[in-house]
Amino acid sequence: MKRGMRVPYTSGTRIVLVSVHTGREAAIDSARLVIGRLLAAGFVVRVLDTEAREVGCSGVEVVCCEPEAAKDAEMMIVLGGDGSLLRSAEVARPAGTPLFAVNLGHVGFLAEAEVENLEAAVDSLVAGRYDVEERLTIDVVARQNGTLIADTWALNEATVEKRDRMLEVVAEIDGRPLSRWGCDGVICATPTGSTAYAFSAGGPVVWPEVEALLMVPISAHALFAKPLVVSPRSTLAVEILPETPGGVLWCDGRRRFDLPAGTRVEVRRSDTPVRLARIQGLEHTGAPFTDRLVAKFELPVQGWRGRVRP
To answer: What sign has the CA pseudo-torsion 20, 26, 28, 30?
Structure first.
């Protein structure tokens, strides 16, 4: 993760794309507040055509829900939960547009702001008081006997999962076989995804600035079935053995591909990161990752006294 990158913007027209979880009334109300403040500050505000009717704001530019929507935009503001941010990343990532997420979901681990400090956060964005960090993503390719089945990417994880019965797979690191597992699946995750599905499956928490890839077996029937943390330059592979049932590939829980028996899935670091905007000097934003863990997982820290000072 690259930290502290300043985002240049000109004194000319500033464009922001706003996306909202339209299934939540609170998110729609928050989106209208954000749009109103941005329009008043002289921004051009874009809204996705799939959300425009529910948002119902005048003065906005309605754009198609595709990567071109984020072209030339200074930022994409997302109002929802982590699922909303993952959906928005599909639009923002190709254009290199930073995402700023406001949590209106449950955990909201990727969110930068909570709804209670929304107005102050927008004011900071208008004033340009934010940095951008880059989060590692992965490229995911699946083939069966040379036939391409999937060519996609993920911010959190790519998961090979069973459809009905347990899978038999062989895991591989950098072209060398590691172990054979009978399992419910295998997760290949990024540091960002270490607190998502990989965490639930028993994987380690990896700080975002650590450049690494994770492989986490799911309910494996094997003596050696521990989570693995490998170099970001490594290539991870999972082969579904031909004599076992096929499976399913999920990327970020959004993109699904059926995997016939004999499929090989390869995962490697992508050259295209996801960029996240971080507010400067605003309470409860830009917090250290340790503080985010404590807050989001409600970890007990009673009794902590901190470093002994001379």
So the answer is: negative
Residue 292 burial (10 A CB sphere; 0-12, 13-18, 19+): middle
**Torsion sign, CA atoms 287, 288, 289, 293:** negative
d(CA 212, CA 263): 25
Q: For the whole model, what pTM was predicted?
A: 0.91
- So which residues are the catalytic ones? 82
**Is 232 strand, coil or helix?**
coil
The strand pairing partners of 24, in sequence order, are none
* CA-wise closest residue to 274 among 126, 125, 87, 97: 97
Tell me which of 101 and 286 has the higher pLDDT.
101
Q: Which two tokens stand for residue 6?
A: 């300043």
By DSSP bridging, strand 75-80 and strand 15-20 are parallel
End-to-end Cα separation, the chain, in angstroms: 34
Q: Is the pLDDT of residue 303 over 60?
A: yes
Kindly report each contact of residues 27-36 with a partner whose C-beta sits within 8 Å and lies 24 or more positions away, as own/partner: 27/79, 27/80, 27/104, 28/54, 28/55, 30/79, 30/102, 30/104, 30/115, 30/118, 31/55, 31/57, 31/79, 32/56, 32/57, 33/118, 33/119, 33/122, 34/77, 34/79, 34/102, 34/118, 34/122, 35/60
Quote the pLDDT of residue 8. Answer: 47
Place of tokens 């989106």: 31
- pLDDT tens, position by position, 166-183: 999 999 999 999 999 999
